[in-house]
Amino acid sequence: MSETPDAPLAPPEPAVHGAWTPEGSTEPPVRVNEDGVIAVLKTVFDPEIPVDIYELGLIYAIEIEDGGKVKVEMTLTTPSCPSAQELPSQVEEAVRAVPGVTDVQVEVVWDPPWDQSRMSEDARLALNMY
């Protein structure tokens, strides 16, 4: 039998169990993961650009705390963006729909300023900006 010393072993995930109450057992809490948050962020589009905000590079950070609290740091293409009021609330609404999310904080940041280099390759192709 061969061993692969190069492959690091990931620590096992801690077991999550439901609780027992006099009414019966409850389901274990759903753990929020970054992939689920990213998936819903990809459903939010800037109304002026036919590319989702994640591929545009408007999402700077996603922080997920134990207990389901999610913080999203995002920016806009410009400070005078006509969607400045609606995009952050659309992000909050989308993330709130992820199973296990208990609270959402969306913070709009301007540093570093957004530029086209933050767009994904897919976004560049969709906008003919390659």
Brief digest:
It is built from four helices and five strands. It has 130 residues and is of the alpha+beta class.
Q: How much strand content do the residues show?
A: 15-25%
Structural class: alpha+beta
Helix content: 10-25%
The first-level CATH class name: Alpha Beta
Description:
With 130 residues, the protein is an alpha+beta fold. It has one domain (30-126): GMP Synthetase, Chain A, domain 3. The protein is built from 4 helices and 5 strands, in the order ββααββαβα. The chain has helices at 34-41, 53-56, 86-96, 121-126; strands spanning 20-21, 24-25, 59-64, 69-74, 103-108. Strands 3-4-5 form a 3-stranded mixed sheet. The radius of gyration is 19 Å and the shape is elongated. The model has no long low-confidence stretch (mean pLDDT 85).
Salient structural properties:
alpha+beta; GMP Synthetase, Chain A, domain 3; two-stranded antiparallel ribbon; 4 helices
Write the layout of secondary structure elements.
Layout lengths: L19 E2 L2 E2 L8 H8 L11 H4 L2 E6 L4 E6 L11 H11 L6 E6 L12 H6 L4
Parallel strand pairs: 4-5
Antiparallel strand pairs: 1-2, 3-4
